[in-house]
């Protein structure tokens, strides 16, 4: 554990960490609310934070005045990359893939064809976790614009690919 913030004898001290310019007490400490803020959160701020309160002449045994919270900083998906795997000829099979380099939690992927006729896809043709869409026995009518949406609780991004059979 690394000490980040202390209040002792009326003095607030912020330790030399990467959090120093972004952390502090939310309220004046003597209000008895020792909530802490972290500004401009980053993914690496995720982790376990422990608050320890030591009161002079307090008869409470050590370890009783401890609060623990786990912080998970969510990260929206990065713009995904759409790719075509296979030879898009009549009667052939191809796979469209979509993947995002960043995202916490891991994004889920949804494919749809937008033009010329809207169409949504379901498993087993589409793998929501892997971001793949398998198109079998291609026909000319399957040509069009295919859009992939990478989404998690923090946001979403899209990419697209034109399939010409």
Automatic annotation (TrEMBL):
Name used for this protein in its record: ESAM protein
Coiled coil: none
UniProt domain Ig-like: residue ranges: 77-164
Top-level taxonomy: Eukaryota, Metazoa, Chordata, Craniata, Vertebrata
GO MF term (any one): cell-cell adhesion mediator activity
Compartment annotation: Membrane
Membrane topology, as annotated: Single-pass type I membrane protein
BP terms from Gene Ontology: homophilic cell adhesion via plasma membrane adhesion molecules
A Gene Ontology term for the protein's cellular component: plasma membrane
Predominant location: membrane
Pfam family, one: Ig_3
Transport in keyword set: no
InterPro entries recorded: ESAM, Ig-like_dom, Ig-like_dom_sf, Ig-like_fold, Ig_sub, Ig_sub2
Alphabetical list of PROSITE patterns matching this protein: IG_LIKE (PS50835)
UniProt KW keywords: Disulfide bond, Immunoglobulin domain, Membrane, Signal, Transmembrane, Transmembrane helix
